[in-house]
Amino acid sequence: MLTFASLQSRVVLFILCTLFPCFQPPAHGDNLGQKTITMYAPYAGFSLSNISYPGNAFDLVAKATFTHHASGEQRTTGMFYDGEATWKFRFTGVKTGLWNFITISKNSDFDGHTGSVSVLPNPNAAIEGFLSHQGNQFAIQKGDDAHLEGYSFTVFMNHKLGREKGWLFHQLGADLKTAEKAWDSYLDNVFANGFEIVHLNVGNSWFNYPAYSSEEHSSTNPDITTFRILETCIQKAHARGGRVHIWAWGDHARKATPINVGGINGRADQRVQRYIAARLGPLPGWTMGYGFDLWEWTTLGQIEAWATYLYDHFGWQHLLSARGWEITSTPATIIAYGSFGADVISTTAHGPRSYNEITNDIRSNTKHPHLYEERHTYKRPEFKLDMEGTRRMLWQQTMAGGMGGFFGFYNSSPHPYPKPEQLRTHYTFWHKKRRFVLGMTTANSLSNGYCLTDREYKRYVFYGEDIYFLHMDLSHMGTDNQPAIAVDLAAEYKEIDLGLLSATRHTWRAPYRSDWAIAVGSFYKKPG
Q1: Which of 132, 189, 267, 471 is the most buried (most CB within 10 A)?
Q2: What's the sign of the alpha-carbon dihedral 266, 271, 274, 276?
Q3: Is-contact 82 224, C-beta < 8 A?
Q4: What is the overall mean pLDDT for the chain?
Q5: What are phi and psi of 282, to 5 degrees?
Q6: Could you tell me where the beta strands, DSSP code E, fall in 11-127?
């Protein structure tokens, strides 16, 4: 039993370890040794055993606090039960150097263990860290200093891969090996269509794999198989430069909610939330939406309680959203729009009416990033997005300052995209060439089309639809000439070298009519 005196001593040790990272506490727990990892991946994993814990193994509360030796920065993450009397905890590096840790728990078997993790630079510069935001723009951690760069957030799903594998998580396969094979095919399809963020909807598989409805199971504990499959999906996507956007729940018409499993934010639901934070929280490469048709079965207060609970238990923050609701209860939330009028915030039934609506939406809240979380699938009857409409919506959302989007196929959609190279061109232009610069703002007065420019007027992207020529006012650029390229957006990615442009007004005449983009200035290139 933990006495007041022993609690006092552990608090003192915790303070000493915090103030003096070199301090090594007395060995009342085991030294779990030192592990060496690289920035962002792979993570360091540690295991502890307890064969005598009398309660629900998923309710045991134990944490590990990691302290960076040089800076004093701390990360606290929970332990999670992994079956057969084994509990684990994980650590992912977002700062190079030595991190010391100590475990803290009221259960003596899990308290006072120490160890360290040495984080080295990642030799693969293409590996990125956690998704974040800067104001109303999405941002991604890059490099060994974890600096933030702009990120174009566009989600993809594909129901046409067979058995709705592009949406329902539990239909990936009956076991990990089968699910991995299906997932690899899904990732191939995602990149082939010009995207890197994959959509998965979990539902009641949180409690019992492969359940989607609460009527398919009687469990109130997290299902370990679900998490083994899900973490594998996340890590595989991340290793390929991609990410996963998870919908935690569905709608209550399909019983794909926690309502019948102890209630929203009830004991079983929060047990799953803690498990998500402990097991998946240390992994970069994912974001999470609450579900769909939320107006039918939940409230803003319940959604904000969910976001706050996860935020408080995460050691590494992940962006959270709730389609049709403006959740601002934590800094790490996305303003997410629906499209059918029943949502608190929405576009029209056909999606955004125009570029102007997109810019008005993204400017409505400058502290959080924005996402059209309704699925703008190919030729969905309500949206009528053909190939040209899909391509232009992608470009308009990015040119509005970085509005997020959601695309792909339903079972009822025509398939495949007739010209997926057009979507790959968008991906190459923004992602591979890293042209979405944080702080870029609209400056459409500088063109007869649309324009984004950085704060220093050194980098520009001009965009025009169905044009022969594009006006570019570069008079604010300064004295240095800057390189420029043009790209036909209705074709496979290919750059036309425009040479060096001076700080004056220019008119570029295209070789033929099409949708065109011109990038002016020096941008990063994505390795790999």
Answers
A1: 189
A2: negative
A3: yes
A4: 92
A5: -75, -5
A6: 31-38, 44-49, 62-68, 74-78, 80-81, 86-91, 97-105, 114-120
